[in-house]
Structure to design on (151 residues):
């Protein structure tokens, strides 16, 4: 193969990849927009996505400090404080001073919060089962592997 043929082949390959990148961008934006809309429907404007994520985190490890939550979510302490404020108003979490260190405030999920996150998780599981029902187990694993590569 001569240098001109090699250069042409590289340019065609790069152009093809760029076309695929653009198509992928459009597709991902559409899928994520639809996913976000579906999640809002599942949450029924009762709680926000951030509140749902925080409740889920507390349902796994309860209690946690505001600082721990901020680190887990890679957001500011003030953002977590705001989300906890909203959840506290809805009686889904409560704050309590640590018995070990009175300077530390721990956030606990309440009984109502646990019930709420269980109901939401049940709806989410049903949604995902329906959404991905047409994919084989192998396709699901490939999709998961691809998303894990993107982390």
């Amino acid at each position: 193969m001569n240098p001109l043929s090699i250069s042409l082949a590289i340019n065609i390959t790069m152009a093809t990849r760029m076309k695929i990148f653009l198509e992928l961008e459009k597709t991902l934006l559409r899928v994520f927009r639809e996913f976000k809309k579906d999640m809002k429907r599942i949450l029924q404007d009762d709680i926000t996505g951030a509140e749902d994520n925080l409740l889920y985190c507390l349902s796994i490890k309860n209690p946690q400090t505001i600082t721990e939550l901020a680190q887990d979510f890679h957001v500011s302490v003030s953002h977590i404080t705001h989300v906890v404020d909203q959840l506290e108003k809805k009686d889904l979490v409560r704050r309590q001073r640590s018995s070990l260190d009175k300077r530390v405030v721990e956030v606990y999920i309440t009984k109502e919060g646990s019930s709420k996150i269980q109901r939401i998780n049940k709806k989410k599981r049903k949604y995902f089962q329906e959404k991905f029902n047409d994919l084989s187990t192998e396709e699901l694993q490939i999709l998961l592997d691809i998303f894990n590569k993107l982390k």
Notes: The CA atoms of residues 51 and 68 lie 15 Å apart. The chain has a mean pLDDT of 89. The two ends are 38 Å apart (CA to CA). The domain at 47-150 is CATH 1.10.10.10 (Arc Repressor Mutant, subunit A).
